[in-house]
Design goal:
- 2 copies of one chain form a homodimer.
- Chain A has 408 residues and is of the alpha/beta class.
- Chain A is built from 14 helices and 13 strands.
- In chain A, the strands form 2 sheets. Chain A has an 8-stranded mixed β-sheet, with helices on both faces. In chain A, strands 3, 4, 5, 6 and 7 form a 5-stranded antiparallel β-sheet that branches.
- Chain A starts with a helix and ends in a 9-residue tail after the last helix.
- At the A-B interface, α4, α5, α13 and β13 of A face α1, β13 and α14 of B.
Chain lengths: 408, 408
């Protein structure tokens, strides 16, 4: 079932029980051969196995059957926001991904440096995938030599990686439904930005963006490769309902990578700063902040990265590192612990996938089911069966005694 | 989850991976005694068992919990069209069921011959269930002696079975929301057809149908039993979204019986003609057309017919015949194969039923779950759990790599 916030907002009640959502990015895997084990099944995980033995297992569907999620929508779903219902522009996700402190009024775009020929037709949509250092230099140049100050707007041009950057325009009255400049094929000229919303903000924003693009292209004209650019996914922060308001919980995010901090911020969580990037560093930050919040989202990135590299063994070892550090977390006595992934990233496929994600719920009031280990196939027989990822927080709210009875 | 086509239409992408949906009509069964085996569990099916061992199993719900489907809605659901959302008139299904080549403009009705007394009140709503030969004779008589040609319309009166026939009116400007003539009880007079849509087409169509009914009743007046008739389910082809457009797949249907060809045609599949009526004939047609399509629906009828006869053993043997012919299909190397039924038809019940239908998914990227054989009880522990039949095509799209990633 897709979660409807209105139902939970009416029932949410405060108490002292703490909920931890531990996300190993891309956790779900596949066997390399039909009779083999998955990454999670291969890993030595005595702590996770004990939790599975004492709690309830199941498998979650991040978006809809058969659909492979990007990281942004997959995390929205974990936070109980159906990504089909709550759309977020790529520009917003890109800005969040580099840790830009986006305000609700900002218009954000994903930018790609590109190469155009003498006739202005695109010959390379990625400008030969220039190195990131080049991207940094070009963004600094654009930041210095372009401006919408005359129109009353601030602009931020920020490097992402290789040919990718982010543009943020800050000021009042931005919005609309803006088209992209990228024709998506080479041999064509870039397109102007137009507004499809028919609103005053939309027309005004399209106009502003086109002005900036003209300036930027003239600044880049003499560059050998990145002599042009395209903008995609122009949008504002959609203004999602706030997680702490829906669930009546002070919520904190503990993550290493900007993207995940950003999505947590979008739904109103506080981002915890800490040193280090290993699971045990994240659990130390958790211990430090334990008394200040009711809900903690902890994000482990490398399980996904190794999956995307096709590195089965490294993914196994990262899962084992999380398991080894887990006693730190358990020593805090959470009332409810969820261990899951945002999606599957089987090393076999070297990419995100649509496969349901093994998930365990542990806590004093969680039903101990018949599952004895944590793994894809073990979870098939678990108490939670197959469920939509937006159900995760609601179940945890129930297990934590944080939902009032429905009706007399 | 009920499938929402809009989500998938945006993500569907083309590749060379082929999907086969193999439907054994009424596949699901029950044990005759509480400790017995079902038809599928009793059948010797080494090929299906191997596929179940290598793939994922589950059980599908065709309509909603507890609801027994007719063949038309059950197949719509397999094709990912929720039958609650996409209504198809009985007249359209009746016309498709007898293989009539319905056009989008045609108005179709299901007809029942009936007996009225001297006062014009219905004394038998089924005209004593006259034999089918009688039905054929009466339809020929009506075809010859009734006409809407003066109004510019063609009419087709076609026998179905016993007291049942189909009426099709062909011409421009038909439609509306038309009521039925059958009062559903004896002792009352038939009702006139009225339009509830308030449209010009509706009023015009009701008028036309009433004219034809008056002619037809006067032609039948001297018949000993079938001296009147009723019309039900007057409707046009609802103009469903086309399967090939939603999923970006060239789609073919391989079926022996007209009803299944008809439903496939309703959603825009091409119907393949071939000689013979056994499973291996259907797989030969599949091999012949393999390069011309991306998606194949193959329909096996007799599993259902034997279930309806209460012939447990014959149903077992038909399942075994499909299993024996399966290597022909597997030799074509489908990327994804689904084996399922449109609904259950337990020989014990001698009818369609609401019981979830054992279903297996097989393919390179399908998770090998813990299930080792194909059967109702084995599927209970499978990776697919219990799911709505409209999810089947979406899962297959994912397994075939035919869906783009959702979000960045």
């Amino acid at each position: 079932m897709i979660t409807d916030h209105r139902v939970y907002k009416n029932l949410a009640q405060k108490n002292n029980n703490k909920i931890v959502l531990l996300v190993m990015d891309g956790l779900g895997g596949m066997p390399l051969h039909v009779n083999g084990l998955t990454e999670l099944e291969s890993a030595y995980t005595p702590n996770l196995d004990r939790l599975a033995g004492e709690g309830s297992s199941g498998r979650s569907i991040p978006i809809r059957p058969g659909i492979t999620p990007g990281s942004g929508p997959a995390h929205l779903s974990l936070f109980s926001y159906d990504p089909i219902q709550f759309e977020i522009g790529r520009g917003v996700l890109e800005a969040l991904g580099i840790g830009f402190d986006l305000s609700h009024e900002d218009l954000a775009a994903r930018g790609n440096f590109a190469t155009v020929d003498a006739n202005g037709l695109i010959s390379d949509r990625r400008a030969g995938r220039i190195p990131t250092e080049e991207c940094i230099r070009l963004c600094e140049k654009l930041q210095a030599e372009t401006s919408l100050a005359a129109e009353g707007y601030e602009t931020f041009v920020l490097p992402v990686k290789e040919h990718r950057f982010a543009l943020i325009i800050r000021g009042a009255g931005l919005g609309g439904q803006l088209t992209e400049t990228d024709p998506l094929v080479t041999g064509k000229a870039p397109l102007p930005v137009t507004d499809e919303s028919g609103t005053t903000e939309g027309a005004h924003s399209a106009d502003l963006v086109n002005k900036w693009v003209a300036q930027a292209r003239s600044v880049l004209a003499d560059e050998p490769k990145a002599n042009s650019l395209n903008l995609r996914g122009l949008a504002r922060d959609p203004g999602l309902p706030r997680f702490p308001d829906i669930y009546q919980m002070r919520a904190a995010a503990i993550a290493v990578y900007p993207m995940y901090k950003g999505v947590a911020k979008l739904v109103g969580m506080n981002v915890i700063e800490f040193d280090g990037d290993r699971p045990h560093h994240e659990f130390e930050a958790l211990a430090r902040e334990w008394d200040n919040y009711d809900f903690f989202f902890i994000h482990i990135k490398k399980t996904d990265s190794y999956g995307e590299d096709g590195n089965f063994d490294a993914k196994v070892h990262e899962i084992e590192a999380v398991d080894a550090a887990l006693p730190q977390l358990l020593a805090l006595n959470p009332s409810v612990l969820i261990v899951t992934g945002d999606h599957s990233t089987p090393a076999k496929l070297r990419s995100h996938s649509y496969h349901p994600v093994p998930t365990l719920f542990w806590g004093e009031d969680v039903m101990p089911d018949s599952v004895a280990t944590f793994g894809e196939r073990a979870a098939e027989g678990g108490a939670m069966s197959v469920f939509h990822a937006t159900e995760m927080i609601p179940w945890a709210m129930g297990y934590a005694g944080r939902l009032a009875r429905f009706g007399a």
